Amino acid sequence: MSPPLRAAVIGLGWAGSVHAQALARIDGVELVAVADTDPTRRAAYPHLYQAADVTGLLGHDLDYCVVATPTATHEQVGLTLADAGINALIEKPLAPTLAAALRLAAAFEQRGLVASVGHTERRNPAIAELATRLRAGDFGDLYALATRRHSPFPDRIRDTGVVSDIGIHDVDLIAYLTGRPISSVAARTASLTGRGHDDLAVAWCLLDDGGLASMELSRVAPLKERLLVLHTAAGRVSVDAVTRTITHHTNAAIGAGAPLTGFRGMSRGRVISHHIEGPEPFHAQSLAFRDALRGRAHDLVTLREGVAAVAATEAILAAARLGTDVPVATSIIPKASHAVEESPL
Ligand SMILES: NC(=O)c1ccc[n+]([C@@H]2O[C@H](COP(=O)([O-])OP(=O)(O)OC[C@H]3O[C@@H](n4cnc5c(N)ncnc54)[C@H](O)[C@@H]3O)[C@@H](O)[C@H]2O)c1
User: Gfo/Idh/MocA-like oxidoreductase N-terminal domain location, by residue (predicted)?
Assistant: First the structure.
């Protein structure tokens, strides 16, 4: 049996702590080191090797690192790891700008390293189930998709606004669930908190094949809401990612056994609601990274998909600034995102 993979977590705030807990629970991986610029954060891991930053971890024979530092630091931390030949799971958003995200993706690709970006929303059990059912054709043609993501103000996130911080999940989900890249966007944003970033946003996305998607984002809400609504040939399908529930308002205009293609009319049918159980998303992501490093089949989110998400959020911010539609750099957007890949290692 091979020895456990040696892992470290860099950045021990909210996300880093969740990663550390996930790594501690999976077989075949040993969390051996942590790094954080804040000594009080490191002190919570007295049994592990501790460093102040990424450079202090080099030379410790690590198989991979989780980068959970603020987004503004992802490029510097990630490039240091790539230069040292260390595989990495980098939190979302991959980088603060498209240019930085492209540099990161190129650095890991050129060295043939395993790298992924933490788009954990795909691993929410209800969203994973929705993706499976969409690909199986259960809902037929998908006409349009709308997302609503509201949160209270996250005092710890200071380097990004609502679009880059949480809207990044929605642009990734739109491309992942529809299987179509976002080709252009229009948007408006508002800043309420005086932190110099967008706190509210609405964005409209045109997909590669003319499909429609929209997003409504707030980080100044008194509640947490994560909602997706899909308009499909089989009726309306909504996912509440907080309660992990899928609700299908069926289309009675489609008879039993009728093909779910083309628009065949829409009328009110039965309402079917399911609570979906499944593994905790960070745990599932840790398992996928371990499997990728072990050369097993896996479903890691590629850095190119992370780049595509940053391209879309950057276009949304530009569209809001300019007040016009802005194209998304589709040439860098990857093909089918859900394919299970074999690791190059
Ligand atoms: N996938 C998700 O659902 C999810 C959820 C929350 C946050 N995130 C992402 O995780 C990242 C961190 O967010 P957070 O909420 O945990 O922030 P946080 O502020 O709670 O934690 C960041 C930690 O990094 C440390 N740090 C800062 N610069 C560092 C450096 N150069 N080297 C080492 N340590 C450094 C800080 O001291 C702090 O402990 C962000 O990119 C964020 O977008 C992802």
Answer: 5-119
For a pLDDT cut of 90, what percent of the chain falls above it?
Answer: 87
In this structure, what CATH number is given to the domain that contains residue 268? 3.30.360.10
Of 49, 226, 72, the C-alpha closest to 149 is 226
From the CB of 159, is ligand 1 less than 6 Å away? no
Going from the Cα of 236 to the center of ligand 1, the distance in angstroms, rounded, reads 36
Q: What span, in angstroms and rounded, lies between the C-alpha atoms of 343 and 329?
A: 27
What per-residue confidence (pLDDT) applies to 281?
A: 97
The parts of the chain modelled with pLDDT lower than 50 are 336-345
CA-nearest residue for atom 33, ligand 1, is 36
Question: Which tens digits make up the pLDDT trace of 152-187?
Answer: 998 777 788 999 999 999 999 999 999 999 999 999
Lookup result for tokens 């006409």: 143
Residue 338 in domain: no
For the Cβ of 15 lying below 6 angstroms from any atom of ligand 1, the answer is yes
Q: How many residues does the chain have?
A: 345
DSSP state of 302: P
Ligand 1 center–CA 14 separation, angstroms: 7
